[in-house]
Amino acid sequence: MPSLNPREGHAPLLAFDAITDGGFAEVEAVLDGDAESLVLFRDGARVQAWLNICPHAGRRLDWAPGQFLRAKTGELVCAAHGASFSLVDGVCVAGPCRGEALRAVAVRVQDGHVVLG
Q1: What is the CA radius of gyration of the chain?
Q2: Long-range Cβ pairs for the range 78-81 (8 Å, 24+)
Q3: pTM for this one?
Q4: How much is the pLDDT for 69?
């Protein structure tokens, strides 16, 4: 997986087209000097990103690398304890960490790639 240090500029995290509309992807990025796993969510022409860490117990959200669960009602579901997170703002709407939120990471689409920023 590509790694990115924000001080190196806007190197691509992932090609925009590699994420299906309404789908998720996992990438690695360097944030504040630490390698972090990010979950990316594509909604049309927009991509949102959060740290791939559940606020309940600090575990990864994916059940296998890059494999995420989605509730019938559309939310992102933590594979470890079933917490459900809104894809609008990352707030936990059901489960053990209700009211807490995923840590958002600023990303944007530039030249057909998802980049930090």
Answers
A1: 13
A2: 78/54, 80/54, 80/56, 81/54, 81/56, 81/57
A3: 0.89
A4: 97
